[in-house]
Amino acid sequence: MEIFNYDNRSLRLLNILESSFSVQDQYILDVLKVSSKTISNEIKSLNELFEDCAYIENKNSNYNLYISKLEEYLKRKRSIYEANINFDSSKVRLVYIFKRLVSSSESTLIDDLAFEMIVSRTTLNTDLKKLNEIINSYNLVIKGKPNTGIQVVGLEKNIRIFILENIYNYVYKEDIFDKEDNTFFDKVFEKYKIDKQAKGEFFRYLTLSLDRFANGFYLEFDENQYKELLSNYAQPFIKEISYYIKTKYNISLSVDEIKFLAICFATMRVPTKINKIRENLKYTDEYKKLVQEILEVVVYEYGLEFDTSDIIEEFIYHIYFLMERLRYGVRYNNNMKEKIKEQYPVSYKIAKTASKVINKKYGYAVSEDEISYLAVYFETLLNKIKLQTENLNILLITNSGPAYNKLMINEIESLIVNSQISAYTTFEKVDYSKFNIIISTEDIKFDTETPVIYQNEILDKTYLKKEINFLQYINKMNAPSIRGMESVLLSSMRENTFFKCDNEKTYSENIAIMIADLINQELVDKNFLERMRERERKSSMIFEENVAFPHTINKLGDDLIIALGVSENGFKDNKDLKLIFMACVPEGENNGLILAKTYDELISIIKSEKLIIDISKIENYDSLVNYFIKNTNLYR
């Protein structure tokens, strides 16, 4: 959240660059809402400020932050904070108010606080209202009594978590430890093989703990509360640090403080090298089962079966630390949240479904920041589905001679790894039915149902890969594509699966009408409606506000069938709903590739309100195809 940081463009820019190794320039422009020239000037100034300790590079439309001297970089970054202490800024005032109130055990009179800050009582009251809204999610509240004053009311742990996540860099501008301390800490980190990612965060916890404890602000955990933290894998490390603090500074940290320091390790992000903590941290069977439940719900709701073999351990660790963050009230700040939501919409939706499983089972509300991080894992799993290629038997027809022949074969092999390529001339007799795809440099007509891609001798590799990938979707559907139309939705639809819905009837009634018609056409089995009703009882299939995606197994036929129901004026029980894309999924097949593509297309439709409204007005299937050809990029 960092409410102080985000008042300054330079700090926002640095936080974005710190959160990812490489950031696209367009993302920075979109988030900061400034021109490219402004960003260039900002980066030039920052590079001058950081000089020999850090450097921001702009290469191939991507920005990269390189830090060579971390401590010096942090010191100079803090100087940006200090330069922005100005009570003309609302956010700076909010930070000052919170720091002032939690630094005193006594109530503070509003008039005294307004005098300190040189602002009016009206301005201060407005700020107090804003601050109360911000700290409310931490179960903190500013309360007051006339002639007595105001104070922050809430648990000390929550006050500390708020400081760590929002205003730490403002409150603690300087390192409180000397060179001797840091040398000792480095040795202890090395001794216990603590992941370096945790080092900076631990110092924040330790600094805050020492400051608050030394000034009489004590944690008050119940005797058995958080007792599991005392057996945390980092306890030997924490105890050695605590002993050093006691010996040098004569400060004996309480058991509650030891628990607080352990929260740092219990709630951190997945370490960069899992093997460093594997021997110390054993994720519980409880979290293994939770991951299994999440994956089962995803399979049920989306029909997507993921191959998790190469990331399952890391995913379970991520869920482990996520659950620990939720348990101890620690929030994960994801600066890439908006970018992830925009670029990985299907994965983000799946991650939201996973968050609902957690909420239902444990009662925790998972933040958008955490959902975005989960989406990264699901995007990795989705990509594995999309990159799956069958052993394609490809026929190359060319009269161009051996040099071009060899070049084209090599280029096709580089595009499609699992492929067998046979090359023939037009003068040779070939059984086309033995091949999945024909690539031809000769402009001739082929008497075959095998799809043909026409190319020049110098292959257009981008186009070719796109075509082959799409043909794989079509092959899996066992259905011909509309010539020139790169759409699983439309290629799975027919004139007799297009429906004009009755806006005087409910969504459920229209579903029943559509399915009854499909049953009469012998396109779906007689129990299809019953299975669809069962799915609806367990989980709503309203994909987004205006679009529904009811789907279930069809035990009749081997083809994916999409039925589209449109209603310009919505439905009796849902006026916002305009489109019903009903998927009849063939039984016994791994349809992940087709469904992944279908979800991508649905998302592209959902993003455009105009597209939804226009489609809802269409009268028949032919008009639908013509509309897509003229108004979308699904026409190749």
Task: Give the topology.
Elements: H1 9-18, E1 23-24, H2 25-32, H3 36-50, E2 54-59, E3 62-67, H4 70-83, H5 90-102, H6 110-117, H7 121-135, E4 141-145, E5 149-153, H8 156-171, H9 179-191, H10 196-214, H11 235-249, H12 255-266, H13 275-278, H14 285-302, H15 312-328, H16 337-343, H17 345-362, H18 368-386, E6 392-397, H19 402-415, E7 419-424, E8 437-440, E9 452-454, H20 461-477, H21 488-491, E10 498-500, H22 507-520, H23 528-538, E11 542-544, E12 547-548, E13 551-554, E14 561-566, E15 579-586, H24 592-606, H25 609-616, H26 621-631
Parallel strand pairs: 6-7, 6-8, 8-9, 10-14, 12-15, 13-15
Antiparallel strand pairs: 1-3, 2-3, 4-5, 11-12, 14-15
What does this structure look like?
The protein is α/β, with parallel strands linked by helices and 636 residues long. 53% of the residues lie in helices and 11% in strands. Strands 10, 11, 12, 13, 14 and 15 form a six-stranded mixed β-sheet that branches. A four-stranded parallel β-sheet has the order 7-6-8-9, covered by helices on one side. Strand 11 and strand 12 form a beta hairpin. It is globular. Residues 272-276 and 476-485 have low confidence and may be disordered.
How is this structure best summarized?
With 636 residues, the protein is α/β, with parallel strands linked by helices. The protein is built from 26 helices and 15 strands.
Structural key phrases:
single chain, 636 residues, alpha/beta, six-stranded mixed sheet, four-stranded parallel sheet, 26 helices, 15 strands
Derived from helix and strand composition plus strand pairing, the structural class reads alpha/beta
First and last CA, distance: 43 Å
Q: Gyration radius, to the nearest Å?
A: 30 Å
Return residue spans where pLDDT drops below 50 for at least 5 consecutive residues: 272-276, 476-485
Report the average pLDDT across residues: 85
How many β-strands, per DSSP? 15
**Helicity, as a percent range:** 40-55%
The biggest sheet amounts to:
6 strands, mixed
Into which percentage range does the β-strand content fall?
A: 5-15%
Number of helices: 26
**What would the principal axes of the Cα set say about the shape?**
globular
